[in-house]
Amino acid sequence: MHDLKFIRENPAAFDEAMSKRGLAPQSAQILKLDEEKRARQKELEGLLGQRNQFAKAIGQAKAKGEDVSAIMAESKALNERIAAFEAELGGAGELGTHLSSLPNIPAEDVPEGKDETGNVKIREHGAKPALAFKPKEHFELGEKLGLMDFERAAKISGARFVVLKGALARLERALAGFFLDMHTRESGYTEVVPPLLVRDEAFFGTGQLPKFGEDSFKTTTGHWLIPTSEVPLTNLVNDEILNEDALPLRYTAYTPCFRSEAGSAGKDTRGMIRQHQFSKVEMVSITHPDQSNAEHERMTGCAEEILKRLGLHYRVMLLCTGDMGFCSRKTYDIEVWLPGQNAYREISSCSNCGDFQARRMKARFKPKEGKGTQFVHTLNGSGLPIGRTIVAILENYQQEDGSIAVPEALGPYMGTNVIRA
Fold this sequence. Notes:
Elements: H1 4-9, H2 11-20, H3 27-63, H4 69-90, H5 93-100, E1 120-125, H6 138-145, E2 148-149, H7 150-157, E3 163-164, H8 166-186, E4 190-191, E5 197-198, H9 200-205, E6 224-225, H10 230-234, E7 241-243, E8 249-258, E9 277-287, H11 292-309, E10 314-318, E11 330-338, E12 343-352, H12 356-361, E13 364-366, E14 374-375, E15 377-385, H13 386-396, E16 404-405, H14 411-414, E17 418-419
Parallel strand pairs: 4-8, 7-13
Antiparallel strand pairs: 1-10, 2-3, 5-6, 8-9, 9-15, 10-11, 11-12, 12-15, 13-14, 16-17
Helix pairs in contact: 3-4, 3-5, 6-13, 8-13
């Protein structure tokens, strides 16, 4: 959500920011709706004043023993008007609905661009593996091993699901344990087991609603299946006022995630890259505004360290304005090299959302000095998705006989150094 005070004082700057996001100027419409809402609020204040006068008049009439039925009827009609005004102003209204549909303002150092071609490489680590044979894609390897079954998954659930068996099922569990141990023991995150079903308010707080409901699954009870544990983890501070000394808060969770993949027809239809159900370890930070930029670099480094320990070649990309997520003011994507695809693919996305989500959630902190409260800053990052990491391990550690070497860091979790049929 956006700061109305900022838009009132800097309409041109706001329009320029929205232009970088590919949108037409917005400030004129917003300020018009804002003026109308403030006029309605002023009208409501006038009605409340009339109600006070009615109450006083009724009291005086009763004291004199006069008939108050007529004035009571007028008072009742007035109260009904007031209730209608309060309901209108208490809801989101046209102004709130419009503001909630607009993306976050990009940070100053975010490059302007229309799509992924405008992204900028920041750094890369390691080297591509030198394989002496033609590498296979992960689904070829997994199916040949008899440990990855898309056909039976489709019988059970349809397209974009998979059944992992044996050593690959164990690899999923091993990766989750490895990721969580690194985040909690080395990086200072607190492990959380959050709900997988959330209400509309939680989805709104992290920006899935009102625009992106079709990207997720909704139950018959009105709950949403989480597309990432960013949703419940960030909402842990929903409508709370924290002490400044409590910041930063750092949370991590391993959960199933569910996405409808609306609009992804024809994309990554084979394999585990884009599925309706997948598991992921997520990182979320709640920080003081002055700390969020440094926390963003730190969080990205935590995801990178996992890839370094796994011996995977990757590059870090700064996303441009046209490729950035709705809530983000700045995002780093980490792209891992996949020999079977002969391409880099995203394996982690780390975003600084500034106070954008905090305003939607009313998440604040009380400064040690000064009065009032300030909005916290929220950040989230993949640390890492289990499925895509399995893909990367299979393709980078494949051997000519179709077996898969196990990265050294996973040895204690797997109990073996090779995956065979």
